[in-house]
Structure formats: structure tokens, C-alpha cells
Specification:
The chain is α/β, with parallel strands linked by helices and about 270 residues long. It has a single domain (about 1-265), classed as TIM Barrel, CATH 3.20.20.140. It is built from 13 helices and eight strands. The protein has helices at about 10-15, 20-25, 35-50, 70, 80-90, 105-110, 115-130, 140-145, 150, 165-175, 195-200, 230-245, 250-265, and strands at about 1-5, 30, 60, 95-105, 135-140, 160, 180-185, 205-210. Strands 1-2-3-4-5-6-7-8 form an eight-stranded parallel β-sheet. Helix 5 (about 80-90) runs parallel beside helix 7 (about 115-130) and helix 11 (about 195-200) crosses helix 12 (about 230-245). About 50% of the residues are buried.
């Protein structure tokens, strides 16, 4: 089964009205990110419909994105969404806490580093209290992730969405005992050299694929969608063939990544 470890169905629907029809037709199992209650309710409804129709599962996730405070200055407790996070987690309605983490990509985001730190600590606490996987967003912030490594190690799993670290950093996280999974998307097709290297050499049992739909389009496309996952999978297999690592055929790698997806999100 094809798997999409990180996507945004609510946002994708704004670009592509039949995105969910495409996902079910292709049989793509996905982890669906949401950042407010309306988005979550949309994903939860699709998840329930998928169960009723025996379609590929959609797993609802929720978190306050690390960019939130830069765009919503003065909003206490993530605009009240921390209370929603706890309500959903305590009610057994979440497959994972995420995406959460740190984004220090530009000056505006760096100005909210303290608030990002507070929000990440709250998300990490929720993941630990309710035994949920943590989906991590990190841009130019790996030092922050390593600072929290002792607590992340206690999480059931840590999914690094759109892995942007180095091969050495990934290996270091695993050495620290973190049950880490590294998700790759369109970056490996856009000549991002370190993403390409990591996808080629990381242990096969730590790999995931994602579209980040609709936010990581291929060149010439306006948005990414579920159909892109096959192309990403083929690219990953080609990289591993060249490197001589496990998962060198698309069919073999698809099975490995499905196992990894289930291990990360189902435990």
C-alpha cells in the first residue's frame, strides 16, 4: 500500500476538489495534519468515511504549527488550540501530535523562538501523557531538537516531516535511542543534495514518504497531491539502487515503507 506520512487534506481540498476521491482510488494511506478545529473536523470526517467504505485509512493529527505565533502575534496558548489539542488527545481522537517543532528559517520566525519553545514543550508533554507519536517540523533548528532529545526519546515514535537535517544528524538521533522515522518528499526530486544523500543511505526501516500536499509541488505544478507519492517512491528506490542499499526496487520499498508507517503511527 502506498503511504503519505504527512499531508494537509483541508488545504489540498481548496486546490483540488476531488483530492479525497483520488486518494481512495489510488489506495494511499495517509497521516492528515490539521492546525485548528475546523481542519481537524474535516479530516476526521474523511477518516470516518474511509472506515465505512473500507478505503485506505486517513489518520487525523493535530498541532499548533511552529509558524503560528509569527502570523498570530499576541495569541495566548496558540490561540486556544492547546486546549483543543488536549481535548482531542484525551478523547482518543488523534493518531499523532503534529506537526509541531521549530522554524527558524527567517527573522520573523526567529523572533518567536521563545514562544515556539513553549508550544513545543506543551506538545511533547501531550504526546507523552497520551502515548502518541510526535510529528516534527524543523527548519534550521536541529540544535533545538537535540536539546529536547532526552524527552523525545520517551515518545512512542518521532516522525521527522520533510527531513531537512544531515545524514550525521539523523544517525545521531538514532544513536540517542529516539524511535525516529525520516520522511522524504519532493525535495529528493529537486536536487536537494543532503535530502538525496539521506534518502539513499538511511536504514530502510526508518524511511517514510510524503507529499506535504498541497505545499510541495513538483516543478511546473501548482500544488502537490496524493498521485505524487508514486513518483516520490520511485525516486527514492532509484537513489537506493545507486547507493546499493536495501529497498532498491519500488515494490520492495513500498512494502518496507508501509511497515514503517504502521510502526510509526500504529505502534
Amino acid at each position: 500500500m502506498l503511504t503519505d506520512a504527512h499531508c494537509h487534506p483541508f488545504d489540498l481540498a481548496g486546490h483540488f476538489s476531488d483530492a479525497e476521491g483520488q486518494r481512495r482510488q489510488l489506495g494511499v494511506m495517509c497521516a492528515a495534519s490539521s492546525t485548528d478545529f475546523d481542519e481537524f473536523a474535516f479530516c476526521e470526517r474523511l477518516s470516518l468515511e474511509s472506515r465505512e467504505k473500507d478505503a485506505a485509512p486517513m489518520l487525523p493529527c493535530f498541532a499548533i504549527h511552529p509558524q503560528f505565533m509569527a502570523h498570530n502575534k499576541g495569541a495566548p496558548n496558540g490561540g486556544g488550540n492547546l486546549a483543543i489539542l488536549d481535548m482531542l488527545a484525551s478523547g482518543g481522537r488523534l493518531a499523532a501530535v503534529g506537526e509541531t517543532g521549530f522554524d527558524l528559517y527567517n527573522a520573523a520566525y526567529r523572533e518567536t523562538e521563545k514562544e515556539q519553545e513553549q508550544l513545543f514543550a506543551a506538545h511533547l508533554d501531550t504526546a507523552l501523557r497520551y502515548d502518541l507519536p510526535l510529528v516534527i517540523h524543523s527548519r534550521r533548528a536541529m540544535h533545538k531538537i537535540f536539546a529536547h532529545a532526552p524527552m523525545i526519546k520517551k515518545c512512542r515514535a518521532a516522525v521527522f516531516h520533510s527531513w531537512a537535517g544531515t545524514a550525521g544528524e539523523g544517525e545521531a538521533l538514532l544513536r540517542r535511542g529516539i524511535n525516529a522515522f525520516f520522511s522524504f518528499g519532493n525535495a529528493i526530486l529537486l536536487n536537494h543534495r543532503e535530502a538525496i544523500r539521506c534518502c539513499a543511505v538511511f536504514p530502510a526501516n526508518r524511511l517514510l514518504t510524503e507529499t506535504d500536499a498541497p505545499f510541495q509541488p513538483f516543478r511546473g505544478s501548482e500544488f502537490s497531491c496524493y498521485a505524487d507519492i508514486s513518483r516520490i517512491l520511485e525516486a527514492a528506490a532509484a537513489l537506493r539502487r545507486k547507493a546499493g542499499t536495501e529497498g532498491a526496487s519500488s515494490g520492495e520499498l513500498e512494502k518496507i515503507i508501509e511497515r514503517n508507517f504502521r510502526a510509526a503511527y500504529y505502534g
